[in-house]
Amino acid sequence: IKLIEYMSITCSHCKDFGEQAFAPIRDNYVNSGRVSFEIRNFVRDPLDLSAAILSQCGGPGPYFALTEEALSNQEAMFEKAKALGDARYNELLQSAPDTRFVGLAEALGLISYFQQRGISADQAKACLSNEAAAEALMSQTQAAVEDHDIQGTPTFLINGQKVDGTNWALLETKLKEAGAR
Q1: Helix, strand, coil % (nearest 5) of the chain?
Q2: pLDDT, tens digit, for every residue of 138-156?
């Protein structure tokens, strides 16, 4: 059974879902070998894009853990974004494409946050300045809209079929209906 979650690191519902469901999905379903669980970024804004790039920066191995950590950092990230003010935020977004996400991530403390989780500052800056990585995430989001009519986050697919609802109780019921044990 293949479970896919389209999520945004800046989505409070995604954070809540992760807190409720990631451990039970892993412990009760993935570890049994009956369910595979994949998270796909659905990028909503530049802040989300910066965090998503950093969560993917270490490759597939640490991706899930880094995404889970980034979700738990949501409030601090929002506080720092608010403290920037609109003028500084817009100034950062108007900078050159190869520096805009580096500047934004530095201003929000994301580089040091991910550095504490195994992504070196140089590695983070290289990932954030990689325009192809940003474009790939934006393309993935557009493909989700076109291929699966994903309109918000979190949204789930079970074996390729979109599931209505965003809470763990409903999703667990749908997993069991699909044969998960």
Answers
A1: 65, 10, 25
A2: 999 999 999 999 999 999 9
